[in-house]
Design goal:
The protein is α/β, with parallel strands linked by helices and 238 residues long. It has one domain: 3-Layer(aba) Sandwich (Rossmann fold), CATH 3.40.50.300. The strands form 2 sheets. A 6-stranded mixed beta sheet has the order 6-7-8-3-9-10, with helices on both faces. A hairpin with a 2-residue loop joins strand 9 and strand 10. Helix 3 packs parallel to helix 6 and helix 6 runs parallel beside helix 7. The longest helix is centred in the last third of the chain and has 16 residues. The two termini are 32 Å apart.
């Protein structure tokens, strides 16, 4: 569903990605792990079009998307939930969700009616959001805002979701809730590429994983294989 081949990208004269290659099969969860500064967030931004790659290729369901504007990539079926959540604070929970479906629903007449099944699905996955549907998003807790950011991405009915550090800045008990949510997404067959600081937790739900160092993949294996790798255990799993 998603294939990245020898991708290079960075910021100005600073090259971060040095030929990144990875694949995400349909219906799987793939974890991208590595130390701070390895280039994980840059990889997500380059894949989703937030920064323009200098070389390499990105294929989404067989369609080349490298160098395409982020809005067009979103329309093609890739949803990026960035680190930091970035919900629209003054808007209600439900309005935030509706914005996630904006690109694929009628601009004027019939919008609410067409969006109703997607809203019901989001509320089924995230019952707490249903309880707070009329509440301003900026007044939610950090964990609730993360749930809202993920649900908003799902409203776009994406082929692939990129989740960048969904547990960042959250209390341990809320982190457990977030990973329980990710497990539900996996059970629902959502295709995910996950960047996560808690590598052990990420590997618990992943089908496959890539380890990044200095802008490139240095190891690719199943979670079970990584757990048996002494170097990975020492560096990332404690």
């Amino acid at each position: 569903m998603l294939k990245v081949d020898k991708l290079c990208a960075g910021y100005g004269r600073s090259a971060v990605l040095q030929g990144l290659s990875l694949e995400v099969a349909k219906g799987t969860v793939v974890a991208l792990i590595g130390a701070n500064g390895a280039g994980k967030t840059t990889a997500m931004r380059a894949i989703s079009g937030l920064i323009r790659p200098s070389a390499g290729q990105v294929l989404l369901d067989g369609c080349a998307i490298q160098g395409v504007d982020a809005s067009a990539i979103a329309n093609l079926g890739l949803a990026h939930v960035p680190e930091g959540r970035h919900v629209f604070g003054p808007l209600s929970v439900e309005d935030n969700l509706l914005l996630g479906a904006y690109t694929r629903l009628p601009r004027m007449f019939g919008y609410a009616k067409r969006a109703k099944p997607d809203l019901e699905r989001a509320y089924a996955l995230f019952p707490r959001l249903a309880e707070r549907r009329g509440q301003a998003a900026g007044t939610l807790s950090g964990g609730e805002q993360q749930m809202l950011a993920i649900a908003r991405g799902l409203m776009a009915a994406p082929k692939v979701m990129l989740l960048d550090e969904p547990s960042m800045g959250l209390a341990p008990v809320i982190v457990e809730e977030v990973f329980a949510t990710l497990a539900r997404l996996k059970a629902a067959g959502i295709t995910l590429l996950l960047v996560e600081q808690f590598a052990r937790s990420a590997l618990e739900i992943a089908d496959y994983a890539y380890v990044m160092e200095r802008g490139r993949v240095v190891l690719a294996a199943t979670p079970e294989q990584l757990r048996r790798d002494d170097a990975v255990l020492k560096a990332y799993l404690g």
